[in-house]
Amino acid sequence: GESKKLATASILCRDPDVLVFDEPTLGQDAKEINFFLGLIKNELERGKTIIIVTHNIEFTVEHVPRTILMSGGQIIADGPTQSIFTNEFLISKSSLIMPQIYLFKKELRKIGITIPKEVIRESEIINFLDKYLENKSTI
What we know:
- By secondary structure, this protein is α+β, with helices and mostly antiparallel strands.
- The chain has 7 helices and 4 strands; from the N terminus they run αβαβαββαααα.
- Keywords: ATP-binding, Nucleotide-binding, Transport.
- It comes from marine sediment metagenome.
């Protein structure tokens, strides 16, 4: 964790317009990932372009608004993260596995709870389920 911070700090000293991070969450604990998220937020507020190369779908779904999905060195999708990671066909064309949150929503559908397609972040699903259960208890 500390060596990644040092490498990042040495790059930030040069104040580049574009920052590229390769697998930034790999081997990082929650505290280190939160530090990284704070750093990204700060750099975005400063008008920087951030490119994150990762296989961590859960991180991408939670924190990245736009995704470029690649397979075999070719771009197979480019668009809003929620559109890409709710498309089973696109995910099957890549070597990735559907996000856990998508699979969870699929299981909920089996028991009659349908969460809107655009709701893909954990916090959004928790809010939806809270409202769903609240409405259910008032019936």
